[in-house]
Fold these 2 entries.
Entry 1:
Amino acid sequence: MTLVEHLKEIRYRFFVCAVVIALVGVAAWIFYPHILHFLQGPYCRAAPRHCTFLVTNPLDGLTLRFKIAIYGGLFFSSPVVFYQAWRFITPGMKAKERKYTIPFVSAAVVFFGAGVVVAYFIFGQAIQWLQSIGGNALVSHYNPNQYLSLFLLTMLIFGITFLFPVILVALELVGIVTPIQLLHGWRYAIIFITIASAVFTPSGDPISMLVLAVPLVTFYFMAIGVGKLLKK
């Protein structure tokens, strides 16, 4: 393909992604009450008697609905976006590269989704711990926009960090690190994972930090085993 043909191809893929994101965003706007109720779940599990949101600005409701429409459009249309990106880069790849790319992309999607799911179920425990720190004299009524920002950030960080084993296996395959090197450095890896979990956990609570650190340590040793198998 010529440069002009590549630019046309990019424009077409981008147009398809933009249309799908917009349509899914409209659907998220329509189903806003259901999506908000779903996102409110961890809050209600932590404080079942008073899990209503408090707004202090007349524009908060509109802002929240726009946020959910945008985030919902991006999240639920992500399979189409990934597919369009894949269709764009596939023609320029060799057969061996395609052989490894499909399993790695699939694994990345699965691990990222697993991180998001874990974050959703642990977020209620994080809220409960944060409320207990303040004491019984405080009655919590959160601003929905601040709650949503913290919640989505937690899910994003958990999703990204759960890609850790996929990245390690990729580094092993290209020869940057070896399974033996990773095995010899397991003590330093555990220390690094623990510190990183404490730093990057948005809520700062020990429960979320522990839930993030333990799987990452497990993934570390799993990546060593997978790297050994793929090297044979």
Entry 2:
Amino acid sequence: MMKKKHTLQAFIFDKLQSHFKKTSDVVSALSNLFNLHPDGVYRRIRGESELRPDEIEIIASEYKISIDAYIFKDSDSVLFQFNPFVKPIKNFDDYINELYAAVKPLSELKGLTLLSASSELPLFYFLSSPALFTFKMFVWARSIWNFEHIQKEKFSLKLISPSTQEKAHQIWDIYKVQNTVEMWSLNILDSTINQIEYYFSIKIIKSKTDALKLCTALFDLVSNLEIMATQGKRITDKSAAKDSFKLYHNELNFANNTILIESEMINLVYTNFVIPDYLRTTDTRIVKHTQNWFSDIVSKSTQISTQGEKSRKYFFETLFDKIERLKGRIEMG
């Protein structure tokens, strides 16, 4: 185990350890990074020799360790990473590759549980539907990323390339096997429904057929979600653990989408800041505050996965009804 001291160097190695399963992995990584003999790395870990300023800079940059988090740890300042500052989104591949880079390491965390509270259906579920994923990318390209060529285009179900669709499905494959606790309200589809109806009304969705295909895709997705909630897992494999997908119905109006990642190695909080962009922090005070908040929300919610059949039936019938009413308005349009 690494020796704990209240120094910047100890702080750096403590944060660095969260990226690896054991200390020897840290030693191996830094030996290669600095072309050092392992003994030299161990001496730095034990505090027998000091990290040079350039080594601190390289470690902080390579492993996204905030030095400010050490300097301001006793203040009321909280440090976040903001993904557009890392790499602005200029095309669809930029976004999906960034999302994949964020999700893939999480899948390797031991003992991972993901808790989320959303004002709309989490993006991960849209990734399982090529039509709905394409529509969401189109909406964000027009309204958030301001892609110039998209501003001049009508919506097309063929907008996203097969390779990007494949990467999106890989992210869904990672997400669907994770242990999650999710808070949804009956408004979970409202944003998507409003977007479909709006773009159809201003003829950005150029055909009634395409609009109805989106309705069908949304209906199919909700049908799958109901099955997932009933069985308490997102995959049909009989060996999959039941209750890996815990779904709660809560009618609080969540102002943003918050995700808490808990694991044996690291805890993180993600929160949307101008959807779909997000803020990310490992600040222990924010993590603890978020854990307490989720605990309170769960206690005031109704579990509708595996149990609460009556409540679950009401919940999903309400969602189906919203889609059918949208479909009716489009057919009359």
